[in-house]
Amino acid sequence: MLGISVVLFLLIYGALLVLSLFGYLTRPSPSRVVTDPDDAPSLGVPKHIQKMWGQYAPWHPAGHYTPPPEGCNITQVNILQRHGARFPNDDDGAAYHASIKRLTAARKFADPRLEFLQDYKYDLGTETLLPYGAMQSFEAGAQAFRRYAHLVGPAHIPFVRASGKRRVIDSARNWTVGFAAASRQRYNPSVDLILSEERNNTLNNDCPNAGDGSEQMDEWLGVFAPAVAERLNKAAPGADLGAEDVFNLLAMCPFETLARQRASPFCALFNEDDFRAFEYHGDLEKYYKTGYGEPHGLGRVQGVGYVNELLARLTGTPVRDHTQHNGSLPFPLHGTLYADFTHENEMVAVFAAMGLFNVSVPPDTHEMDPAREWVASRMVPFSARMVVERVVCAAGGESVRVFVNDKLQPLEFCGEGDGVCALESFVESQAYARSEQSREDFERCYN
Ligand SMILES: *[C@@H]1O[C@H](CO)[C@@H](O)[C@H](O)[C@H]1NC(C)=O
Ligand SMILES: *[C@@H]1O[C@H](CO)[C@@H](O)[C@H](O)[C@H]1NC(C)=O
Ligand SMILES: *[C@@H]1O[C@H](CO)[C@@H](O)[C@H](O)[C@H]1NC(C)=O
Ligand SMILES: *[C@@H]1O[C@H](CO)[C@@H](O)[C@H](O)[C@H]1NC(C)=O
Ligand SMILES: *[C@@H]1O[C@H](CO)[C@@H](O)[C@H](O)[C@H]1NC(C)=O
Known about the structure:
Subcellular location: Secreted
Largest sheet: 8 strands, mixed
Number of domains: 2
GO cellular component, one term: extracellular region
Protein name: Phytase A
Transmembrane segments: 6-25
Distance between the termini: 51 Å
CATH superfamily of the largest domain: Phosphoglycerate mutase-like
Helix content: 40-55%
Structural class: alpha/beta
Keywords: Disulfide bond, Glycoprotein, Hydrolase, Membrane, Secreted, Transmembrane, Transmembrane helix
Bound molecules: 2-acetamido-2-deoxy-beta-D-glucopyranose
CATH topology of the largest domain: Rossmann fold
CATH architecture of the largest domain: 3-Layer(aba) Sandwich
Shape: globular
Radius of gyration: 22 Å
């Protein structure tokens, strides 16, 4: 079994490599290549449903990447990237399994969609990167080379860091393999630095006094889950499922589908409205955990260290930070391409520290706004990436562009709010990261 999956993995990996080389060789302008999202394996679940998987959605572009206008050159690229698809974490996996056992223990199944449970075996691992997640990271590395090949040279190999969790390191390494493959092995970046999660770390959110969004998620669960539980309990009399079980069974759809790379039978138990509610649950978590809504105002401080490192790179000056940055670790400043691998909660903290996705109305825990702009599946799907480009134009001056999953961010806090921000104004706009306030907030994480 293991042998077969290794062979399959290598086959898929090889196919991706060939595809990415083919794409590179047959297209005249590498910086204009856009990876077609529909090239990704279909997984047997409609794409519009996959996009409702919140932070467990597989990567898909949220916009259309465009190179800078004529007369402008990109001079530096900073990529902050989430690990690829993973197994459920330890506690979550145990909870999912327990809910499945409860459902399986029903007196009978009154719905044919439940019959698979008669010989169902829970076989998800925990915590680690999936082959699908490795592919996503590989493809992201290949895309980074294709898009930014002109910034790469023998003296300009990407500088790569990863937070210390296995899946993050594996994502970073698979990214470097994809990058090297797309360059036809001319450039072989390696993971230069692994930042321990036991210490303050700019690629990992950590703030013991901060909330985790569970209160807000529970409120929403109380709104949407009871009716779904009732429906399932009718189909499985005696199972006696509660609201938490509904969430756990819904989560099996993305996790099992991504692990098996074909539709999990759990997906069929739910309708679009259920998945919409599931997605909103993730939006609430991200907003109230490390986002703008953390009740003690300790969400965005968890992204400050990375933002200060970003400012240092963009301006070519040493890091000034009093939060997570560890000044005794190597921090080169004259690179052209930096790639940092992290977790979604850290990315959300960075967004909030920077002022991205600054929605004027906080998401309501009792009512979902279908037109909301704070949407986890577009911000932090598996393999999510924020790319900050430094651009120089003949017309004068350096500026900054920020893409989140290929969508140009308007940067309404800077200039015209049209997505182009003078470098100097960008640095100025990052007042929170540079402030005494963020230093104090960081202390409040611990005291
Ligand atoms: C890519 O990720 C997989 C996990 O799916 C891991 O086993 C493998 O070692 C990674 N590749 C590299 C080059 O680290
Ligand atoms: C991180 O820094 C804070 C504030 O200086 C300190 O209290 C805390 O112990 C550090 N955390 C770790 C894990 O070292
Ligand atoms: C900085 O990183 C080094 C190397 O991992 C470690 O020994 C040191 O304790 C870290 N410093 C702080 C303040 O965490
Ligand atoms: C978010 O927007 C509000 C105004 O709409 C502004 O007062 C606030 O400073 C912004 N927050 C950040 C972090 O940019
Ligand atoms: C952009 O790069 C090209 C090719 O290296 C160069 O000729 C041109 O002067 C550069 N433009 C700017 C504005 O730096």
